Amino acid sequence: MITAQEIRAAMADLLKNKAGLPYEVHFNNNKESSKSYFFVTITSRRKTFDRVYYERFLTVDCQLRLLPDEFNTIRRTELYSAADALDTAICPVIKIKDRHVTVLNTRSRIVDDILHYEFDLDFVDYLPIEVQPFMEEYLRWRVKTD
Q1: What is the pLDDT of residue 70?
Q2: Radius of gyration (Cα) for the chain, nearest Å?
């Protein structure tokens, strides 16, 4: 099972290291920041198949919030460059823990001088379940008699 903490760590690694972007990564809104930063939100849905396996649908929104320059303007060229760097770093797969998840689609747009770079992750995950002691005994008995 991939936890939310592991997903957040993978997203921070992707934005800082793999994309090579010099911005901090926050998962909480940081309105009082004195530096430009990424604000990442992750929306999750899941569809259950059985007791163990389920399909996960994650929508990741990476918002690049730049501070204005000395002329109090946001440089859109910097936002476009960041979108290109994310395209290169993300496609075709993202590594989360020991798994590689294919990115099927990406979207980017600039609204109010904030880059919104979104992508979807769809994969099958599992819930670890414990084998009951009775079942272990039953399995040992079945293996020895066959």
Answers
A1: 86
A2: 21
